[in-house]
Amino acid sequence: MNVLVVGMHLDDCECIAGTTHLLANLGANITFVQMKPYLHFKGPNPEAERQSLKSAEILGAKKIIFDYSDTKFYRTNEKTVRMTEEVICDIKPDIVFMMHPK
Q1: Is the Cβ–Cβ distance between 2 and 33 less than 8 Å?
Q2: Torsion angle, CA of 2/28/7/88, rounded to 10 degrees?
Q3: Contact (CB, 8 A) for 74 and 36
Q4: Which of 52, 55, 61, 68 could form a disulfide with 37, with the two C-beta atoms 3.0–4.6 Å apart?
Q5: pLDDT at position 74, please?
Q6: Residue 99: which of 33, 52, 2 has the closest Cα?
Q7: pTM of the model
Q8: 2, β-bridge pairs
């Protein structure tokens, strides 16, 4: 079973840690996708990214962080749609969890 968890912010995917950890222990392939870059008020945060990737690893998940180095705009632009389509085609998820209402 392939599970895709989509989050907008740094810790959105980890908010369902219990569920994803349980599914990983049952043999599911878990992938976290973080849609929003770390360009919060102070710019990129390599330490936060390292911690986020380590958290996913502990939970038995792979984490993909979308790169928006060429733009700060991430909502429903062509690049976001293309990157999302590529992830979905690669993973072929059986279950998708999202933390964002839209």
Answers
A1: no
A2: -10
A3: yes
A4: 68
A5: 60
A6: 33
A7: 0.84
A8: 29
Please answer whether residues 21 and 60 qualify as being in contact, where contact means their C-beta atoms are separated by less than 8 angstroms. yes
Instruction: Give mean pLDDT, residues 66-76.
Output: 64
Confidence band, pLDDT 50/70/90 cuts, at residue 21: very high
In the three-class reduction of DSSP (H, G, I as helix; E, B as strand; rest coil), residue 96 is classed as: strand
pLDDT at 76 (0 to 100): 63
What SS3 string covers 19-76? HHHHHHHCCCEEEEEECCCCCCCCCCCHHHHHHHHHHHHHCCEEEEECCCCCCCCCCC
Give residue 42's Cα distance to chain centre: 21
What's the farthest any 2 CA atoms get from each other in the chain? Answer: 39
Number of residues assigned to the chain = 102
* pLDDT 10s digits, 28-60: 999 999 887 655 556 667 788 888 899 999 999
